[in-house]
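Anyone? Bumping this.
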Amino acid sequence: MSSQDVLIHSDDPCHPANLICTLCKQFFHNNWCTGTGGGISIKDPNTNYYYLAPSGVQKEKMTPEDLFVMDAQTLEYLRSPKLYKPSACTPLFLACYQKKDAGAIIHTHSQNAVICSLVFGDEFRIANIEQIKAIPSGKVDPVTKKPMALSFFDTLKIPIIENMAHEDELIDDLHKTFKDYPDTCAVIVRRHGIFVWGPTIDKAKIFNEAIDYLMELAIKMYQMGIPPDCGIGEEKKHLKMASP
Amino acid sequence: MSSQDVLIHSDDPCHPANLICTLCKQFFHNNWCTGTGGGISIKDPNTNYYYLAPSGVQKEKMTPEDLFVMDAQTLEYLRSPKLYKPSACTPLFLACYQKKDAGAIIHTHSQNAVICSLVFGDEFRIANIEQIKAIPSGKVDPVTKKPMALSFFDTLKIPIIENMAHEDELIDDLHKTFKDYPDTCAVIVRRHGIFVWGPTIDKAKIFNEAIDYLMELAIKMYQMGIPPDCGIGEEKKHLKMASP
Amino acid sequence: MSSQDVLIHSDDPCHPANLICTLCKQFFHNNWCTGTGGGISIKDPNTNYYYLAPSGVQKEKMTPEDLFVMDAQTLEYLRSPKLYKPSACTPLFLACYQKKDAGAIIHTHSQNAVICSLVFGDEFRIANIEQIKAIPSGKVDPVTKKPMALSFFDTLKIPIIENMAHEDELIDDLHKTFKDYPDTCAVIVRRHGIFVWGPTIDKAKIFNEAIDYLMELAIKMYQMGIPPDCGIGEEKKHLKMASP
Amino acid sequence: MSSQDVLIHSDDPCHPANLICTLCKQFFHNNWCTGTGGGISIKDPNTNYYYLAPSGVQKEKMTPEDLFVMDAQTLEYLRSPKLYKPSACTPLFLACYQKKDAGAIIHTHSQNAVICSLVFGDEFRIANIEQIKAIPSGKVDPVTKKPMALSFFDTLKIPIIENMAHEDELIDDLHKTFKDYPDTCAVIVRRHGIFVWGPTIDKAKIFNEAIDYLMELAIKMYQMGIPPDCGIGEEKKHLKMASP
């Protein structure tokens, strides 16, 4: 085995090279990355190498051989697959690693994200739903020093930025959201999809699932006339049709 | 194998420790417990031990090693996984075991439950649908002494309680529904999800599936203008658009 | 192996005892027979024995051991599982075998069937859709003597009967539809589901899939304002919103 | 093994005979080819033989033995399965091979295609969505000489032709779209489904997935009042209900 291939071959299903492939397949069946859309990057917590899904590959058929591996210090590719180009998302993934201390980033073309970007203005908002408690608040518990989640009574706010012709052109707006929304773990790109990150791939996956659930729910609420961030007990007066 | 691990290791796919994992995976793919939401508890009919899914775990990846086991008499944990905390639902599960003689409890973040909780007031109601016959009526057949199901002409009523910041705060309202709805096998928590129980895990699973089917159908009926509990033959006069 | 068990044990995946289980599992994941709803019966073309799914079983977990086997001549059970009762649908299945020369019958609680039964009156109608060509017309090709399918320009009509408290009470209305719709291969039961039959289980499965596809499409058309049986080119004038 | 069977037996999962079966099964579970609808044809890049799915087969159960193989020069069948007839789509597939230099053609009964054909006139249009970038523009990069994809700011246009009683009657309209839309990789057939082709089966699959995603999105946009080809920033003024 070449020294490059050692980087991607492991019997451990939780090795980044294996996990990216498993999750891309799972996300494909969620309609999140059909037609080669979307992607995942994971930082190996042992080596600090970045593992990156390539551009243009069918996400449900991806294998570890298809992955790029990058050194986090030099930003040089330690391994490049012969058949593929690096994903155009790579600069965005690097920004999340460098500015948000991310351990993994998930990018999908979720239709829920695209629809929310058409309905909402500059910010997706939903409040008072149990699933919000899966999302980090950005605050730290003063006693345990652990990161605190949003509470049921909080409003989840996710910034929405405009899409550009090429993904690397999103970088300025991405950096701006890092400043304007220092606690967000996600950015919606209008008419495009969503980027979600977390300190580990497990966390990023949980955040992404919870946010997609909340976007799906927000669309259903909107279609029934209920503002997704309306107060508890206010739903009925917004309903387009009388409560049964 | 330690004495604690004996509790969770079995070759029998119907052993509670295995069944909780199998069903959590199945429910994950139903969008009922993504983002670590939801949970299941089963009472082992042989030992009367309670098996409980932990807090914060990805439900489709759960293994028997992740489970808590509790003694039904002392309410002490016979086994605690190192990595996880007990679910905040535990007091609610215990209430169902103790007050409703449950053999298993299923908790999901089903979007159908959340949407029904936004549209309905204090009670979910649906009538005159065949699937209602899967739900117990609370009555006992005077001849066979077996529990009787609802009939096609009955109205299924499920109480809806308000959500709180923490799940253990739901306990008072849960006890109140036990009094006000002595025959119910489920409680919807507004903007949160649903709890469903039964004398066995098989029954609880069937009740949960049937109720979710009925909530999904009720939402579709509501969206077309038909009150889900309207009389047979009354549908057409409620339709928003003329019958084709 | 007992003589009764010989009836249900076969290595052939197309043996009726195996095929009923495979299809029930597949239909469960289509949301057609959750909560123990629905069922399948197949006539073994070699023995003329009827294989019948039992009442109350979780359809995705069913095994050949759970099946009833009935002699087509004597209508006596050649095999009865210890744990289950015969399905209440059995008299309806027998009527399809005896009056329609069916080789298999599929019964589902498809929500598309229930919704169509709420929107349509006594007859489901859809016209001018390619998938209609999967449904038999009841006519025979004068040259090849083979059964002919509906054409693209035909209107598929499926009778809708009222539900009763118990499934065996549907028998009179079922017989009436056999007379009024001599060419139909399906009957919708209002607020309940659908029965579909065919000369073989393969045909019954294809008819059921095509009809469910057409009911799903009809609901979408209805929701956009288009009568599902409207003429080709008439769609646009029915649209609730202007064509984009 | 007979010389005919050599054509369809291979251990390579990417051999056309294996790939057609794998993809038909995958597409069946997408609701794209239930009830025997739809089909796939692949040209073997090594032999130039056409592999064709037969008529009337259950697409999720298809095996290599069910396939037709045709010589691209003589258009004679090198292999015909005993049980099946050639698909009525065969002349349409041949037209795509001969006039569009296709390497593979996918035909589905996608409900998204049928609904779009009911809502749109002679052309499906969607603009300014990231997923559009998966579709070829028909232009060639002047430097790299590689085919260029549509850009985010482009409008994807897919012609819609009228359905006929028999699929071979579509041939004239198909040829007309080849002239009127020289760059299209797909044709929607009203009230029927869609044909999508590409230089390889991998490309055809990616195009088909991306187009289905875009048709699904267009229907959702239309239902909310947003013209799928409206300008960026114009969405809000089209919304049926106010932005939340």
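Late reply, but here is one note on the structure posted above: DSSP finds seven helices and eleven strands in chain A.
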